TrEMBL record:
PANTHER family: RIBOSOMAL PROTEIN L25/GLN-TRNA SYNTHETASE, ANTI-CODON-BINDING DOMAIN-CONTAINING PROTEIN, RIBOSOMAL PROTEIN L25_GLN-TRNA SYNTHETASE, ANTI-CODON-BINDING DOMAIN-CONTAINING PROTEIN. One of its GO terms (molecular function) is structural constituent of ribosome. This is 50S ribosomal protein L25. CDD domains: Ribosomal_L25_TL5_CTC. GO terms for cellular component: cytosolic large ribosomal subunit. Pfam families: Ribosomal_L25p, Ribosomal_TL5_C. Gene3D superfamilies: Ribosomal protein L25, beta domain (2.170.120.20), Ribosomal Protein L25, Chain P (2.40.240.10). The keyword RNA-binding applies. It comes from Devosia geojensis. Residues 1-86 form the Large ribosomal subunit protein bL25 L25 domain. Transmembrane segments: none annotated. The keyword Ribosomal protein applies. Keywords: Ribonucleoprotein, Ribosomal protein, RNA-binding, rRNA-binding.
Length: 150
């Protein structure tokens, strides 16, 4: 990541023309830092999945910032990244993240074998966790669950 001077629409457009994505690091009771990131790296990270639930160490001018992506904006037509917001994480801080739910052992569920269906209401869970201990996913074992079980 590179620190950037200009802020606003004109500066952001100039960065995008150069193949960069404008971003900001804020939080932890420190001043916000405006940065720019390589378009290719951000594009891959966003579309790889789990972008908003992984911590990242960003090196900005020799200073390492431990951050988690909080939000990103995509072009409404072309779906390329326009801007990214990063939340700075302090030591021992707790953060809210959405974590994917994975269901295993569907073949070992008597209820599903007898024609029942697995009704998934939410594919993600909102968790408040330590920033150092964010789970990749929450795994639910369906072994032994019958029709009507939750």
């Amino acid at each position: 990541a590179q620190a950037r001077e200009g802020v606003g629409k004109g500066a952001a457009r100039e960065l995008r023309r150069q193949g960069l994505v404008p971003a900001v690091i804020y939080g932890d009771k420190k001043e916000p830092v405006t940065i720019s990131l390589a378009y290719k790296d951000i594009y891959k990270a966003i579309y790889a999945g789990g972008f908003l639930s992984h911590t990242i160490d960003l090196d900005v001018g020799g200073t390492i910032h431990k951050v988690i992506p909080r939000d990103y904006q995509l072009d409404p037509v072309k779906d390329f990244p326009l801007h990214v917001d990063f939340l700075r994480i302090g030591k021992g801080s707790k953060i809210n993240v959405q974590v994917h739910v994975n269901f295993i052992n569907e073949e070992a569920s008597p209820g599903l074998k007898r024609g029942g269906t697995l009704n998934i209401v939410h594919h993600t869970l909102d968790l408040t966790v330590s920033a150092d201990n964010i789970p990749e996913e929450v795994t639910v074992d369906l072994t032994g669950l019958d029709i009507g079980d939750t």
